[in-house]
Amino acid sequence: MKKKSLLFLTAIFLFFSSCGDSVEDMVGDYNGAFTEGHLEFQKEESEDETLSPGDEGFSASNMLYDEYYVWENATLNLSGPPNCRSWNWVVTDPKEINADGNEKVVWIQTVDLSSERNAVGSQRFVIYIPDSGLKVGRTYRLTLTVKGLDGSEYKDSCAIVVYQHIYNW
Q1: What is the 3-state secondary structure (H, E, C) of 112-129?
Q2: How far is CA 18 from CA 12, 14, 21, 31, 32, in A?
Q3: DSSP character at residue 145
């Protein structure tokens, strides 16, 4: 019995003495494995600013990425360039062609600040996939057309891929 209690006390002593780090040290060591050497901080004056149509360096082809992957029960949130007169977001299905030869329009969202009805608007595109009519396993085309303050029109498009999320709980 003495041997068991001595062994038990020795095990407890070794356990507590091996944990010499504080909780903060352990958390810092853990987080350091993910951030060490991978973060690059920029000075405030070198941060990129969002360009508007008409700004030097603005390119319509950079308004959207080439592809966006969105889960079937999620929301896709995008933002167009600021300082525009209007933003027109159109989602079409390239696999479904209308009688006039154009892709079937699935979703339209337009904000036109030149209209007195829409005195306040947003450059944001928000689509909740379950309510949108977009189907899992399909690739759609999103076209953004903006009108700059000078009246010039800019257009860019991308693919939206809707996928089924596989739960791993």
Answers
A1: ECCCCCCCCCCCEEEEEH
A2: 10, 6, 9, 20, 21
A3: E
Q: Which 3 state secondary structure label does DSSP give 2?
A: helix
Other CB atoms within a 10 A radius of the CB of residue 112 amount to 14
pLDDT digits (tens, 9 = 90+) for 1-38: 777 777 777 777 666 666 666 777 767 776 666 655 54
88, 92, 73, 78: which is closest to 131 by C-alpha?
Answer: 73
pTM recorded for the entire structure: 0.67
Q: Which residue has the higher pLDDT, 166 or 114?
A: 166
CA atoms of 146 and 55, how far apart (whole Å): 14
Question: What is the rounded average pLDDT of the residues 136-160?
Answer: 95
